[in-house]
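Page 42, continued from yesterday. The earlier attempt failed because a stray header line got pasted into the input along with the sequence. Redoing it now with the clean sequence only.
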Amino acid sequence: MSDDAGQTRDGDAGDLIGGREERIIEVVAYRPEWPERYHREKARLEAALGPTARRVEHVGSTAVPGLAAKPIVDVMVSVHDPEDESSYLPALEAAGYVLRVREPGHRMFRTPGRDVHVHVWKAGSDDEQRHLVFRDRLRASPDDRVEYEEVKRELAGQFRDMNAYVDARSAVIRKITRRRRASLSLPPSLRWLEAIPTGRAWLDSLPALLDECCKRWDLACGSPYPYSQVSLVLPVRTTLGADAVLKLQYPDAESEHEAAALAAWGGRGAVLLLEHAPDLHALLIERCVPGTSLSDAGPDEALDVLIELLPRLCVPPPPQVRSLEDEARRWATNLPEMWGKAGRPFEVSVLNTALEVLSTLPGSQGAQVLVHQDLHAHNVLRAQREPWLVIDPKPLAGEMEFAVAPIIRGAELGHSADAVGRRLDRLTAALRLDRERARGWAIAQTLAWAFEGTTVLPHHVATAKWLIAT
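This time it went through. Structure tokens are written below.
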């Protein structure tokens, strides 16, 4: 219903309040009164909505100085949940706005004079960020403004139907948005996200997210680190001269409560959480210097460090963190399907062993603690405040026997049956853990993490087989 320029298109009649309207599509020269009108509407909206309006922005072509546009001012209002109409619809209607469009994740209101459109989106959503990316690209690039204006003027003379007009502009909007993303020099490790729609949308949103973080926290950014698979991670410096790391997360369940885990640790054995913006999926965290990986220290020293760190990390879990029991239930449901889609890449007996573990261990756990389910040596960095600090938590609430599973399967400390067995024995003996439960959890998680789509990771399968035979 709405393209990246902020323009609403007419969709199915069920989405439109009042039905379709034929209208003349008029593109006029830029008018200085458009930003003035936006500021009046912003004040009106903030007075009506109060803190419900997480963000109010001028979007669309009228937000770009010098750009010809349809004489309709588009305003974006970000709220917690657009589907919760009771939190904003009565207030907007009382302020004189009329609901025109209702669709999943988006509502559009307009003034009775139809010269202002108010778009309601979810704070931090891909839709919100795409509109900001496109606006900011047009503001920054004269060549893109000229190209976009030429296309708009050409199309305005061809259509009287808003759907066709908006759809026809989509190609040039996508092209301009991609240019803005390309200016970030994204690391190759994030390219896999291009293959999924939500991934592409998140990549397109990154420039606006980064700009907002830099503005909100007064940051100067360096070039992205090359290694992250599911986040854009950059070295930054604050206006006070402090070095930090900015992490923009691809929204997924495993990293959803990373900030809560860091806050629970409070810098004890892990990097400090300096700032958190849930609406942007952004974290500002302590920078580790020199930042070399624990995997460089060698297997024996690495295990010494991890044995010292683990009890400090196993604190009471924050209430919002997902439970290991729920995660295990999900693994048990998904494993047979993933195994089948991957072409049954290992013996059914291996699969059945993991499923048996997942049917018995979750309901008989010991004391529940905060566990980092991706705590391997690459996620422990040399630092100055403490010799070694943990990064990148993927938190669960579970028993401590599970906490050693990612260390046991970590190939960076040696990938052989003997190496895996030594890690299992040494960790469980030093930490006084139930060896069989630790072994079972390591088998289950190693196989659950052995699939990338329909591709299986052979080293994970080998590790699981060694553990079964141990």
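Notes: The radius of gyration is 26 Å.
Reminder to self: strip header lines before submitting.
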